[in-house]
Amino acid sequence: MADIQHQGGAIQETSHDHAHDHGHDHDHHHEQSFIQKYIFSEDHKVIGKQFLFTGIFWAAIGGLMSLVFRLQLGFPEMSLEFLRPILGGWITDTGKLEPEFYLALVTMHGTIMVFFVLTAGLSGTFSNFLIPLQIGARDMASGFMNMLSYWFFFASSVIMFASIFLETGPASGGWVIYPPLSALPQAMPGSGAGMTMWLTSMSLFIVSSLLGSINYISTVINLRTKGMSFSRLPLTIWAMFITAIIGILSFPVLFSAALLLIFDRSLGTSFFLSDIYIAGEALHHKGGSPILFQHLFWFLGHPEVYIVLLPALGLTSEVIATNSRKPIFGYKAMIGSILGIAILSFIVWAHHMFVTGMNPFLGSVFMFLTLIIAVPSAVKAFNYITTLWRGNIVFTPAMLFSIGVVSLFVSGGVTGIILGNNAMDIQLHDTYYVVAHFHLVMGSASFFGMMAGVYHWFPKMFGRMMDERLGYIHFWITFVGAYLVFFPMHYIGIAGFPRRYYSFTNFDFTKSFTDLNALITVAAIVTVFAQFIFVFNFIYSIFRGRKAPANPWGSTTLEWTTPRNPGHGNWPGEIPQVYRWPYDYSKPNSEKDGYEDFIPQHIPLSQTPNSNLPHEKELLEQTGNNEEEIRIDEQ
Fold first, then answer.
1. Which helix (H) or strand (E) holds 5?
2. Could you tell me which of 80, 144, 326, 624 has the fewest CB atoms within 10 Å of its CB?
3. Dihedral sign computed on CA atoms, order 531, 536, 539, 545
4. In angstroms, rounded to a whole number, what is the distance separating the alpha carbons of residues 127 and 135?
């Protein structure tokens, strides 16, 4: 069972039964050059930081794009001449935004935020950084594959970024790139080279995601330290493990859709095209179906919601338990809810397609399955609230963002029940009600989870503390701003505002909401610029922040047993063994055993006789205080 792999000049056994025996040499292997250590690194911690820095860059680009089209929506009569130095010919002679470029901005904003920020920036950062540290591994199962995963993402980012500067503009047609706009290069300016680059970029992104997911799964299964059974994994690891499985099963379907779309565009096939006329001229395409593309896209698209959301909920679980100074409520129920969400996420995709002429009976089946997903989601929400209940809460910035995740998850999820009802969805489809729903439950909740993770694990990433005062300012402006931006959209959506429309001034029924649109735009501007408070805090703290103590939050998990700035291999000596679950907070009588209000996972039960619970005492008695036997039984 002991496969041996070479990793960056170090030897690592891939069996979790032996992972602790090796790695003494990890801190003694040959000196690496700057390029090996920081650019083409195989160290999971460096790769996690690379994903984080790239994700922050893309978040800034995507956020600023949203401001441009929000200015158009909130103040349609305002001259945008001041943006000409940046946008050039996309500003008309009258100082207005080109309608084609408006659609391109919406398309790129959605693509960037969903894939490059909330998938790569969130999962790529924390899956890479935390999985080996929290399960007690020297590194990922394959450092080389891990490095490739990032550089495929980087290549994807370069191509997507370059497409912004094309003369014909980047891809248009919405982030879902439905044919025929995406399948016919001559359909509109954004259907040409911009769409080709979008498809190329996304193909590389999918390869990156698959390489990462295979690595995460292999690492969790094979490289857990002694005693780290699945029943002792932190909920962060459970969330990232299941997320990786979802990604492996769903991303190849989007890859196939992108490939067939490239065939339709370049090789004259007709997978998604039939009976198309352009300027009165009939094209040769016959027999294809644009509905087929929707099925393929949403078979990834809906699991993608949970690829984005589950890691954020996993980070939230850890932060809430730590800062409530309480064990997470319903640990097994939380794992069950993650598994339930993962399974159901694959059988609800057609609720995005109720208006495609679907058989009403089939629609009712997808409605039923969609409403069932509220059950495991509610389990998570109630368990978070119960963990907070009567806890000794420490309101760190990470804790505030985690509570924000719960708030947004609940308020955004409730509207999902409404949209899951096919009779309601047919009326609300493609209105701002849908925009409000998914920006709250997926976009904002996942972004808040990412921020919670950065504030909480920053001391382990960089060995320094972020400024808490700036963190509080950042949280409150972002929290209030998110609700001011997206909550009013429910009302204009119910009133009939369609998505992706360039202007509403031509319709009498929409003119009454001009002031509300202006409010949304002002709130969006304030919220986006508040993120630069975080960027300043983040960069300043890397170099000038207060040096972090070994375990600043009083956490129980293994990553806080490493040195302040762990090298490649994480632990200089043997990897700690695990003897207990990851949420031993505020155990009765723990102070009598010499611990304050938390007992780390690597502390043996025999060292905490006063605070052991009845089942733990029974385990010790059954094995005659031989914890090695307990560890073997738990594997």
1. strand 4-7
2. 624
3. negative
4. 11
CA atoms within 13 A on the CB side of 318: 33
Q: Output DSSP code: residue 330.
A: T
Q: What is the mean pLDDT of residues 182-211?
A: 94
Full-prediction pTM beyond 0.90? yes
3-state secondary structure of 512: coil
**Structure confidence by residue, pLDDT tens digits, 410-461:** 999 999 999 999 999 999 999 999 999 999 999 999 999 999 999 999 999 9
Query: Dihedrals φ, ψ of 547, to 5°?
Result: -60, 135
Residue type present at position 63 = G
Q: Which amino acid is at 514?
A: T
Closest by CA position to 350, among listed 279, 407, 429: 429
CA neighbours within 13 Å on the CB side: how many for 392? 10
Smallest CA-to-CA distance from 595 within 617, 603, 329, 560 is with 603
d(CA 169, CA 192): 9
Distance between CA atoms of residues 519 and 496, nearest Å: 18
Rounded to an integer, what distance in angstroms lies between the CA atom of residue 8 and that of residue 180?
47
**DSSP code of residue 177:** T
Burial annotation 259-284 (CB, 10 A radius, 16+ → b, else e)? ebbbebbeeebbbbbeebeeeeeeee
CB-based contact 126:48 (threshold 8 Å): yes
Q: Which helix (H) or strand (E) is 377 found in, with range?
A: helix 374-388
Confidence of residue 626 (pLDDT cuts 50, 70, 90): low
- Burial letters 491-502, b for 16+ CB under 10 A, else e: ebbeeebeeebb
The tokens 């709130």 sit on which residue? 523
Summarize the chain as % helix, strand, coil (round to 5).
Answer: 65, 5, 30
Between CA 9 and CA 117 the distance in angstroms is 32
Q: Report which residue type is found at 66.
A: S
Tell me which residue of 490, 517, 494 sits closest to 505, measured CA to CA: 517
Tokens of 350: 């057609």
- CA pseudo-torsion sign 306, 601, 331, 458: negative
Residue type, 351: H
Residue 100 exposed, middle or buried by CB count within 10 Å (0-12, 13-18, 19+): middle
Q: Exposure pattern of 401-434 as b/e (b: 16+ CB <10 Å)?
A: bbbbbbbbbbbbbebbeebbbbeebeebbbbbbb
Please tell me the distance from the alpha carbon of residue 554 to that of residue 548, in angstroms, as a whole number: 12
Q: How many residues does the chain have?
A: 635
One-letter identity of residue 261 = L
- Nearest Cα neighbor of 607 from 582, 590, 621 is 590
Separation between Cα atoms, residue 210 and residue 252, nearest integer Å: 8
Residue 345 tokens read as 């996420």
Distance CA 574, CA 563 (A): 13
Mapped onto helix, strand or coil, the DSSP state of residue 278 is strand
Place of tokens 């493609």: 430
